[in-house]
Amino acid sequence: MLNRQKRGQIENEDLFPFKNYSRDDLLAILNSKNPQMRTIAVYSLAKYKDETTIYILVDKFKTEKALYTRLAISQTLVGFGEIAIPYLIELLGRIGNNHEKTLPSKYFNKKSFPLPRDLAARTIANYGEIAIPYLIEILNKNVDDKNDLFIKQQTIDAIGAIVYKSNNSNNFIYLKGVHSLLENILDLFDDILENNTFDVNKKYSETHVLIWKILRSLSGFKKNEFALDLIFYILCSCDFDYNDEYFYPFYWEAIRSIGQIGINSNETTEFLDSFEDFDNIHVNKALEIAKWSLNIK
Q: Longest Cα pair distance anywhere in the chain, in angstroms?
């Protein structure tokens, strides 16, 4: 219990004494040394649904360390609706230090889409489809340096989470403009491929985490042939060394996404069969699950 208190966890009844506090009073509490009081302030500020409050909470999001206070900020901003999305877009890649900065060392052995590590991306993903146009704007910006790549990594994570959730929701609402979204992802990949600043085929290229995340994000586009073709296009366009273990995460992620997209075609079968003799446990695991999902013997 003590650890939860240190992380800012509260009970619903803890909010009651503060329901009539003014915004100024709550802002003073927001700077308390007690993380539980900060959480109370965040939830209590939810009644002030304006850009002033959004700006204050977004600014606090950058520096807050307590887990439950961070969650409170995230939930409160989502509760404010679409007006808060542009502010959160500006935070992509700027909160926390838990982002993927290298390719993974093992296969993600779950059916669900991985929770975005970037807190801004995770919050934006909770908005669902209304956030997509804002994320597309980020995809369409030029890639000039490592920071641009890093921000686009978090953008792709948010898109992947939204698409997966939209496709797997009990209240199934398939994304509007799916084809257009995939075209924007394709354009992003082509921009990276054609950018002379980066060498896609070189080991440890700055582009690799982003390309891997693109492959992962495509897993949510169920029964979508464009998404499937995009996976094949990415792997064919990159001249990766088939025998170098460094590049294996691209293969197991592509195989995982193909299995989740769920289109059993001759091209799919031929592609998966080409990995039958691969000597890597993570590629083998991805292959086993994908073939089972697609009912390929």
A: 67
* Rounded Cα–Cα distance for residues 253 and 256 (Å): 5
CB contact at 8 A, 87 and 54? yes
Q: Of the candidates 241, 206, 248, 231, which has an alpha carbon nearest to the alpha carbon of residue 105? A: 248
* Residue-range domains of the chain with CATH: 2-80 (no CATH), 119-294 (1.25.10.10)
3-state class percentages of the chain: helix first, strand second, coil last, to nearest 5: 65, 0, 35
Percent above pLDDT 90 for the chain: 77
Element (H, E) at 254: helix 248-261
Residue 69 near residue 40, CB atoms below 8 Å: no
Give the tens place of pLDDT for each residue, 109-166: 888 899 999 999 999 999 999 999 999 999 999 888 888 999 999 999 999 999 998 8
Measure the CA dihedral 240/246/251/254, to 10°: -100
